[in-house]
Amino acid sequence: MTDRAAHTVESSTAKTRISPTVQGPEGTGGPTRIALLTDVHGNLPAFEAVLADVDSSGVDAIWFLGDLVGYGAQPDECVQLAAERCDLCLAGNHDLGVLDRIDIGDFSPAAAKAALWTREHSSEETLAFLNALEPLQLGGPIGVYHASPRDPIWEYVLSDMQAEACMDVMPARVGAIGHSHVALRFTRANGGDVVGGQVEGGSILDLSRGDWLVNPGSVGQPRDGDSRAAWMLLDVQGWTGEWRRVEYPIDEAAQAIVDAGLPRSLGERLYLGQ
């Protein structure tokens, strides 16, 4: 999808759900072991499975990079769980589309139907929570964006060239993004060329040198050929990143989509990881 720079939100106006310690720079009381989650998309079984894995991993904070809703059939439950568990929440393009803060005319037909359904079936509390979020947060040990440092709402960062352009405007050495639903990493050492690509579950990488842009992959709708829910464990003291994958009851999520009257294809694709 093409960039839409007009939608970029300046960091000075960002309003995320964020605890005071999250913004602290490295070594001043901020978290060191951070669970990076993104793109739940109303998939409660996947969200619950990932949080169970997070709980067994000894993290200090949970940061969510946007798109709690859209596609899936349990928006209220997912938002409530995020409000209870996540120390930082960003808004994604589907969250903003449900709120009518961006035009869903750019969505696929199925995504637009799901956004309208979510708008009509979400509680006032859910919509109020989402409306308090913005798509980026700067000032901590890493920069966090829903889509990209250049355009935190719309840009899909899938190539080395895109990643290089993002690193050029990224204030922090390390940035985390979601939006593409693909577990990825891009790195640039000593001003050289950017190299990157898809990351398999179980991979542990050394992020201590160079510039990095990482994507944990999607919790609720992976699109990298692996149907398991994805998340990433980031250690900003040792500067390592571990990409994790978690089995979850796909049948439950797919059946909830059918029962809600949403497009059946939204459930079918969960089995394929596409």
Notes on the structure:
It is built from eight helices and 13 strands. With 274 residues, the protein is of the alpha/beta class. Strand 3, helix 2 and strand 4 form a beta-alpha-beta unit. Helix 2 crosses helix 5. The two termini are 17 Å apart.
Please tag this protein with its features.
274 residues, alpha/beta, Purple Acid Phosphatase, chain A, domain 2, seven-stranded mixed sheet, six-stranded mixed sheet, 13 strands, globular, disordered N terminus
Produce the secondary structure layout.
Elements: E1 17-18, E2 33-37, H1 44-55, E3 61-64, H2 75-85, E4 88-89, H3 93-98, H4 109-121, H5 124-131, E5 136-137, E6 143-145, H6 160-169, E7 174-176, E8 184-188, E9 194-198, E10 204-206, E11 211-215, E12 229-235, E13 240-246, H7 250-259, H8 265-272
Parallel strand pairs: 2-3, 3-4, 6-7, 7-11
Antiparallel strand pairs: 1-4, 2-12, 5-6, 8-9, 8-11, 10-13, 12-13
Summarize the structure.
The protein is 28% helix and 19% strand. It has 274 residues and is of the alpha/beta class.
- In this structure, how is the largest beta sheet organized? 7 strands, mixed
Spell the H/E element sequence: EEHEHEHHHEEHEEEEEEEHH
Beginning-to-end CA distance, first to last residue: 17 Å
CATH class annotation: Alpha Beta
